[in-house]
Amino acid sequence: MSVGNPSTRRHLFAAFGGRCGYCLTAAADHLDHLVPRAAGGTNSRFNLIPACTPCGTSKGALSVAEWVARRAAGTLTTGAGAPPVPVYRVPMKPVNHRPIAA
Ligand SMILES: [Zn+2]
C-alpha cells in the first residue's frame, strides 16, 4: 500500500532529491515510517521519509536509533547488502531573518 498522499510524496521525494533519507545514496522507492506503525507511528508527513528498499527492509519495525545501533554493531538480521552506517539528516529550509523593527 502506498503511504502518504501524492502531495506529501512529491514534497518528501523532492526534499531529499529523490534519494533515500537514510543512506542518502540510493534512489528512494517508497516512504518509510520514522516511528514504525508497530510502535504507534502515524502516516503524518513528519513521520515519513523517502527510503530505498534495502534501508526500509532492514529497518522494519525498529526505531531509527535502534536500527542505526544494530547496523553499527552488525547485528541486523534483514537487509543484507544494505549500505553501512546510515545518516539521517533533516532537510533544512533556509530561514528568512528580518531585522527587528526599532
Ligand atoms: Zn537507503
How would you characterize this protein structure?
This protein is α+β, with helices and mostly antiparallel strands and 102 residues long. The protein has a domain at 6-73: DNA Binding (I), subunit A (Orthogonal Bundle), CATH 1.10.30.50. It contains three helices and two strands. The chain is globular. The mean pLDDT is 83. Bound molecules: zinc ion. Zinc ion (ZN) binds next to α2.
Fold-level CATH name of the domain at 6-73: DNA Binding (I), subunit A
Note the run of SSEs as H and E: HEEHH
CATH architecture classification name of the domain at 6-73: Orthogonal Bundle
State which percent range the strand residues make up: 5-15%
Number of β-strand runs? 2
Low-confidence stretches: none
> Can you give the mean pLDDT?
83
- Give the proportion of residues in helices: 25-40%
- Helix/strand-derived category reads alpha+beta
Given the C-alpha coordinates, what overall shape results? globular
C-alpha termini separation: 54 Å
**Strand arrangement, major sheet:** 1-2
The small molecules bound here are: zinc ion
Task: Please write the CATH class name of the domain at 6-73.
Answer: Mainly Alpha
Biggest pleated-sheet summary: 2 strands, antiparallel
Rg measurement, Å: 15 Å
Number of helices: 3
InterPro entries: HNH, HNH_nuc, NA-targeting_endonuclease
Keywords: Endonuclease, Hydrolase, Nuclease
Protein name: HNH endonuclease
GO molecular function: endonuclease activity; nucleic acid binding; zinc ion binding
